[in-house]
Amino acid sequence: MGFGLANTLVTLVCLAAFDAGLFAAQVANQSTVLAIEPGAPARCNSAYMLVYFIGGSLGTALGAAAVEWFGWQATALIAAAAIVAAAISTVRSPLV
Q1: Residue 38 needs a FRET pair 20 to 30 A away by CA distance; which of 30, 53, 62, 69 works?
Q2: Cα 96 to Cα 86: distance, rounded to the nearest angstrom
């Protein structure tokens, strides 16, 4: 997406795919969190949503600052590097 901002259609398609991916990840993560303590779904969901909101807020603030400091393409590359690091961490972590 960092290289396709000049094309409105490419940007919209990328944003739609990004949003769908975030929604799917949130549903999967919520299912995992709720399975930790089946007797306390409200407490687990509240804790999950608090962390999710704080992470999203920090990501928005840092992302906006990164675009201003480094430009859009560098910010997109930083995000891609973070995704690769998360994928490697996920693959290497032991299954619970």
Answers
A1: 53
A2: 17
Q: What is the C-alpha to C-alpha distance for residues 7 and 88, in angstroms, rounded to an integer?
A: 31
Residues near 63 by Cβ (< 8 Å), separated by ≥ 6?
Answer: 75, 79
Contact 73, 3 (CB under 8 A): yes
Q: Residue 75 CB: number of other CB atoms within 10 A? A: 19
Which of these, 32, 84, 22, lies nearest to 55 by C-alpha position? 22
* pLDDT, tens only, 5-23: 788 898 899 889 999 999 9
Distance of CA 76 to the CA centre of its chain: 13
Question: CA dihedral in degrees (64, 70, 76, 82; nearest 10)?
Answer: -90
Backbone angles phi, psi at 81, to 5 degrees: -65, -40
pTM of the complete model beyond 0.70: no
